[in-house]
Amino acid sequence: MSFRILGTGSSVPKKIVTNDDLCKIVDTSDEWITSRTGIKARYITEEETPLSLSYEAATKALKDAKVDAKDLDLIICATLSAEYQSPSLACLVQKELGAVCPAVDINAACTGFIYALDMADSYFKSGKCKKVLVVAFDALSKFVNWKDRSTCVLFGDGCGAVVLGEGKGLLHSQVHAQGDMSSLLIGDLGDGKPYIHMIGKEIYKFAVSTGSTEIPDAIEKAGLKQSDVDHVILHQANRRIMEAVAERLEIEKDKFAINIEEYGNTCSASIPLTLDKMNRNNLLKDGQIIVMTAFGGGLTSGTCVIEWNKGEK
Ligand code: UT7
Q: Rounded to two decimals, what is the model's pTM?
């Protein structure tokens, strides 16, 4: 037995930074950012911390799931922007929630949430866990070189969380890594300054080819057809990437969830943030099929096919 999603939650910082705000610090324009990426604004951390945003999203997900933190068997935080290397963000969340289970951080960059679900699947199948909390937090604003217009306009901060319980919601999951392509996207501390270095055009090609090959492959491995899919949640990196993937598949474009205009690219948080928004807007009905696909630093990629059956007793 694997898992089903029992509840979702999310959180974002208070401060909204619009494209026009960015025009004051780098040589860019709302027209360039909107037409090349679809992004209009993003949330940027000021007084919030990784823990405060993660705790807020986790608390909302537990409430939605009607699960007590004391009943959790495992907490996985997917992040590359935790406050400390140790203690892990997951341990800080565990303490704050009053949970008594193992807790661990994983880093698969923008694919972190999918990797966390794939790992959780193994814990459920082995019988080690009955309730798992997955938190995906990232705040790439602190890694971005705010003088580099080719990257600083892309990213935003946020957090998404899900509570998983035993069930038959996960139909298939797959994750990949191509370390030989790692130099295309690096978030490092360089000479003490945290910067993101990205060969945007190559990542763009990787993203489109990953999305258009992984999605049909995962759907087939789940024993389904593309016409069975109700929603596709693709990592929100660029509206053009999502449109290019949609054009290559036999899934109607309006089944692709898009919220990049409000959040920008929130790295590991982008898929669970989107899922939470859809859940809270009552867009998800029991029995619907959702495909979630991410790609990013590593380079990593992964896809989960789930049946939404949150209401199942
Ligand atoms: O989460 C996973 C990681 N990230 C991604 O998935 C990102 C994937 N890549 C992309 O989304 C796109 O490649 C970008 C949005 C990053 C860039 O779009 P592009 O269409 O590939 O533009 P480009 O890099 O080829 O740049 C075109 C022009 C250049 O000027 P020249 O050389 O043609 O004169 C850039 O200098 O646009 C210029 N440019 C900008 N102009 C205004 C680059 N950034 C900006 C900017 N404002 N912010």
A: 0.97
